[in-house]
Each structure stands twice: as structure tokens, then as C-alpha cells.
Amino acid sequence: MTQVKLSFRERQAKFLSNYEAYGFKDKGALVRAALDHFQTAIEKQDLENSAALYAEIYAADPDLKSLTEAALSDWPE
Description:
By secondary structure, this protein is mainly α. Helix content is 70%, strand content 0%.
């Protein structure tokens, strides 16, 4: 595992010092869980933004709609 040196605000340091109350074995485990959660949230937002962009493109392109409908007509039930 890679180690890094981090600086925290006083409020954050107090929160970290209560790691056991949140069910973590140490401060590092709490920080790793928080980073994992944040990374997942960012990836989810990126995926939602991508889906919205595809939907916008689809809605604006009648040829794409026709192509999709033609492909769906051949799709097995």
C-alpha cells in the first residue's frame, strides 16, 4: 500500500480521530472508504452526464431514431 502525507483542517482531524465510532480499524481505513465513496460518486455522475449527452444527441437526430427503430424491428421477441 502506498503511503502519502496529508494535511487536514481541525474539523476534519477531529472527525478522523473518531474512526472507531464509525466502525473503522484506523484513520487510514476511514480515509480510504471516503475516497472510494467519492470516486464512485464521481464515476456515477460521469456516467449520468454521458447518458444525458447520448440522449440529447439521439433526440436531435431523426436519422438515428430511424436506424434504431429499424434495428429493433429485427430484434427477436
